[in-house]
Design brief:
C40 family peptidase; coiled coil; Papain-like_cys_pep_sf; two-stranded parallel sheet
């Protein structure tokens, strides 16, 4: 059966679309890079599936080419056998004619038999001659029919072989284009991996720099509080009893480090660890170091809000929470099917300090 051709223009359009890359900004965040990588991996999977389907078609074509080649070879053998049979028939017919002549069965002999009045010999000679002629005619007609049938089959098979070879060449060309596209997409993913690692490194450097700045600020504040102690005031005594607790860089650093240690763990609703978390389960582990649900919606809502969030504070909104790591980023367990990861702080969140 003739296989349907794949339109080259359509394939080219698909490949052109697959090569489209999301615009890259000057300083993409780690989350943006991870999204780009996910898109590239999805495109790579689609390209690989298309290549697998094309390879399967090529394999089918190759099997069909082998089968058609064998059928053409058999047709050539049948045609040669028919030619040989024709030669045998021709030689046999010549022998019969020669025998009829030598045995007196020719025209002259027939006239002699008829003039002699021997009706029995005449009828016998006439019947034999007629049978010989009819047999030869039938054999020659059978040969002609066989040769015509074989020649038609051979022509049809050769036409099909030519079409199959053209299809195979077209599929192989498409296969080469797809292979090159896949290689480019794999290079793109490798580059994105390097960029993600670099973004993570920069984020970590910025986090530690922020912690160091906060530590120095705290030290300066403590130093200033000690100097005013002689006047009967203590550092932080000016705040009301309901004000937010002072920030501790060491505590914030420990919270962030514990959150970082769970990157990549799968989200499971209600899970508190050690290898699966939901959002409050992750926050509970980060702030306490224990695998228990201590950060419920009620407990987080009762914590004092802060307007100057520092690494280790908790990002909160109705139905979700995460650990703030600085520079507008947080670590959180997003939703089913996702994993613990770094992402921008979501709109509508506020900050509380544990």
């Amino acid at each position: 059966m003739r296989l349907r051709k794949v339109h080259s223009a359509f394939i080219a359009a698909v490949l052109t679309c697959s090569l489209t890359v999301a615009p890259v900004f000057a300083e993409p965040t780690q989350s943006e890079l991870e999204d780009q990588k996910a898109n590239a991996q999805s495109e790579l999977s689609s390209l690989q599936a298309e290549l697998d389907a094309l390879s399967s078609k090529i394999a089918e074509l190759e099997n069909k080419l082998i089968q058609t080649g064998e059928e053409i070879a058999q047709a050539e053998k049948d045609l040669a056998a028919a030619e040989e049979k024709k030669e045998e028939q021709y030689d046999a017919m010549k022998l019969r004619i020669k025998y009829m002549y030598e045995s007196g069965s020719g025209t002259a002999t027939m006239e002699k038999v008829m003039s002699s009045g021997n009706i029995s010999d005449m009828l016998s000679q006439a019947e034999y001659s007629q049978q010989v002629h009819e047999y030869d005619r039938e054999q020659l007609q059978e040969y002609a029919n066989t040769v015509t049938e074989i020649e038609n089959l051979q022509a049809k098979l050769e036409e099909e072989m030519d079409s199959l070879e053209k299809d195979e060449a077209e599929f192989q060309e498409q296969q080469a284009v797809l292979s090159d596209t896949i290689a480019d997409k794999q290079d793109e993913i490798s580059n994105l991996d390097e960029m993600i690692q670099e973004a993570a490194r920069k984020a970590e450097e910025e986090r530690r720099a922020a912690e160091e700045a906060a530590r120095r600020q705290q030290e300066a504040a403590n130093s200033g509080g000690s100097q005013t102690g002689g006047n009967g005031n203590t550092g932080g005594s000016s705040g009301s009893s309901g004000s937010a607790p002072s920030y501790s860089p060491s505590t914030g650093n420990a919270i962030v480090d514990r959150a970082y240690s769970k990157l990549g763990c799968a989200y499971v609703w209600g899970a508190t660890g050690p290898n699966t978390f939901d959002c409050s389960g992750l926050v509970g582990y980060a702030v306490t170091g224990s695998y228990s649900r201590v950060c419920t919606s009620g407990s987080l809502a009762s914590l004092p809000r802060v307007s100057d969030p520092q690494p280790g504070d908790i990002c909160v909104k109705s139905g979700h929470c995460g650990i703030y790591i600085g520079n507008g980023m947080m670590i959180h367990a997003p939703t089913t099917g996702d994993v613990v990861k770094v992402a921008p702080v979501q709109s509508g969140m506020w900050y509380v300090r544990w």
